Amino acid sequence: MVKSLLETTKPGITKLVTITSALGFVLSAVEHTWTLGSLAIAAIGSSIGVAMTAAGANSLNQAIERDRDAVMQRTAKRPLPESRVTARQVVTLGIVLSVIGTALLWWVNGPAPAVLAAACILVYVFAYTPMKLLTPASTLVGTIPGAIPPMIGWSAAAGGGFESALSLGALSLYALMTVWQVPHFFAIAWMYRDDYARGGFCVLPTRERGELRTVRAIVVWTILLAPATIAPGFLVKNLGLPYVGVAALTYLGFLWLVVKLARTKDRASARKVFFASIAHLPLLIIAMVGEALVRVWLARG
Questions:
Q1: Top CATH class, 1-166
Q2: Which residues of 18-48 are buried (b: 16+ CB within 10 A; e: fewer)?
Q3: Topology of 167-301 in CATH?
Q4: pTM of the model
Q5: Per-residue pLDDT tens digits for 80-94
Q6: With contact defined as beta carbons under 8 Å apart, do 235 and 243 qualify?
Q7: What is the mean pLDDT of residues 204-233?
Q8: 10/55 Cα distance (integer angstroms)
Q9: Which of 11, 105, 170, 175 is most buried, by CB atoms within 10 Å?
């Protein structure tokens, strides 16, 4: 049962959220002077708190969508559709993780990280989840809880104040995560549009002329991804041309696959765009963290 309950937290998504939060933490932390102990406490508190709140929100989402998950091939093997756990157990887990994670962030890292994490939970569970049944605009709402985690990490490493979460560096990471999510999700929705239709979800590919409209949306948001990808190189203190170079190259590779999808409009091309989006973000994260740490090492060496 423990394994099944863990599965309801969507470990893959929880891991990604924790990593993007850690990105914000690192880029903010290198701007400050730390003792080893205080850095460890802040980093561990932030990582555990974010992971718990993300896991809690995911469990609550699965509890709400359990009946729809049961009729979709992609999700029919989840613990709730297979009755490996009960809805009450999953809801309890989601609430406990959400409350403890938020409290931990407040206690260790300050009010801003806790409030931002609580906002992620509320938007994901009470806005995005029900909106998926009503309008394709839910995709844009869904980017909010996916884009906030870097701001949580950033403010957690800067004393926990709200002003730090609204710094240009933090906002540039928010913008990057917002724009990146849209073509990433639309590629998924393209591949599983029949499944989403069976589940009753109102995603763009299931609407009238949905395939064409989805391709157009992917193209538009990929164009917007160019400035969003490059911006941290100019707005984050310890980033510069090395990051911008990596960002430009990875973006051009992603753009090439999106152009191919626009021409072919087939599932194979959508699948390539999906996997390219998965590769694009980690490469950006590695480039950001790598350059920031090297710059700080050289400056202090």
A1: mainly alpha
A2: bbbbbbbbbbbbbbeeeeeeeeeebbebbbb
A3: Four Helix Bundle (Hemerythrin (Met), subunit A) (1.20.120)
A4: 0.94
A5: 998 999 999 999 999
A6: no
A7: 90
A8: 7
A9: 105
